[in-house]
Write a structure and sequence with these properties.
With about 100 residues, the chain is an alpha/beta fold. The chain has one domain. It has 4 helices and 3 strands. The longest helix has 25 residues.
Length: about 100
């Protein structure tokens, strides 16, 4: 099972991910790291700073979604269980991904 933990910044997503990984003995990653890798790779269109406006959050999540989906595809073929946490995806995207993974 792939666990997706989303939410606003500073609400405890990382703490929850760490606790879940400890109790389930599974790996995890933060979308912060994935976004940093995209920054280093100079991926076009990436967000440069946090913007809490609803339309900016939606736009950033839509931009990030193909990368998240590809990461999920890869990790699901390598691990039975994994945790991904971060601010860079939306509930509707989780619902879409839940039908595939």
């Amino acid at each position: 099972m792939i666990y997706l933990i989303g939410g606003a910044p500073r609400v405890g997503k990382t703490l929850l991910a760490q606790q879940l990984c400890t109790t389930r003995s599974v790996g995890w990653i933060s979308t912060d790291l994935l976004m940093d890798l995209l920054r280093v790779a100079n991926a076009p269109g990436r967000k440069m700073k946090w913007d809490a406006a609803p339309e900016a959050i939606t736009a950033a999540a839509e931009w990030f979604f193909p990368y998240l989906e590809r990461f999920l595809w890869g990790v699901s073929s390598l691990a039975d269980h994994y945790v991904i946490e971060g601010v860079d995806f939306l509930p509707a995207q989780v619902a879409q991904l839940s039908t595939q993974y």
